[in-house]
Structure formats: C-alpha cells, structure tokens
Amino acid sequence: MASKNRLVGLRPLLPVLLFTLAGAGLALAQAEGGADSAAAGPRAVVQDTVDRVLAVLDEPGLAEDQRRSRIEALAFSVFDFETVSRLVMARNWKKLDQDQRVVFVQEFKQYLSRNYGRRLERYEKAQVEVLGTRSEPRRDVSVLTRVVGGQYDGITMNYRLRERKSSWKVIDVVIEGVSMLANFRAQFAEVVSRDGVEGLLEAMRTRNMAPDPAD
Description:
Number of helices: 7
Oligomer: single chain
Radius of gyration: 17 Å
Distance between the termini: 21 Å
Number of domains: 1
C-alpha cells in the first residue's frame, strides 16, 4: 500500500505533459527564424506529431475513446520507452532481469497513458510556440516551446530528443524546469530501496488496474 501511494506521477502538471506533445487541441505556432540543420530533425518530429494529431481532432464522427486512442498512439510513437525506462530506473535498471525489464516498460507506458491520456474534451485550445532548439550532452537536442493562451498560458516545455537508428525520439519532457525523468527517477528509487524491484512492479500493476480516480 505504501508503494502504491508513492506513485503519484506529475499530477500537478496534468494534462500538460502528454497532451502538449500530442496536440490535444493545441496548434503549433512556429517562432520566426529557421532551425539549423542539426536541430531540423527533432523540430520536425514535434511539428509532424502535432499536425497529425490535429487531423485526428478534426475528424468528424469519432467517439471520445477512439479519438483518445489514436492520439495516444501518435504521441507514444515518438517516445523511446526503452530508453526512458532505463534512464528512469538509473542504477536500479541492472537489478531487473530481462523479463522484469519487459514488464517494467509495459507497465510504465500504461502508467503514463492512464495519468496523462484522459478526458480530451476538457482541455481548451491554445497554441504552442516553438522558441528554438538547444544542443544537449550525448548529441541530444531539446525543442523549446511555450504555451500561448488557454489554461496553461505561458508554461514552458522542453522536449529532449535522442537519435536512435536514424530516428529522433522523445526521452524527456521538462515542464517549467521540472524533468519527467528526474521526477519518476526519485519516486521509483525510493520504492525500490524500500520494497525492491518486485515491490515497484507490483505497485505499478496495482495502480494500473485501479479505476480512474474521481476528479
């Protein structure tokens, strides 16, 4: 029970994380000035994802569950969940055997979906302005953005992307200076230190099977 209660995620930031990347009613307004060649790929990933999600949102006749499912699929297609899982677990990744690693990736993906992928209809339209790009260690690139208008006006969000097999994938989202990776790393490390890796996996399973909390 204690482990389950520790897995609170980034609830104060809901629904900004997934839905800003996925579009969920957001239109991307690119800032003036072109991206340099090194950052063109990551910037294009963000642009393309939003454009495709907006097409889903504009498609008539879709039920909420259908719309949400398609948007989640698009958003998740640009996340590198294996790399994210390894970075989130940090040194504890070595404590997981191969089967446990597969389970962790699956449960973590579902956990993010449940926490950041609900109730599309509640989020009013806004714009996301791309402010530029920034080179990071390990040849990563951050795409810097800011929400313009709506409930989250002025919030800054930086998407860190890493190239793997000639494809750019998101490995972290930093919202108002708060890193998704750092947030989950601290939570999961605390659970593992107290309950072990099986305790963490069980806590995630329990959380993922529980009914959605009432708003």
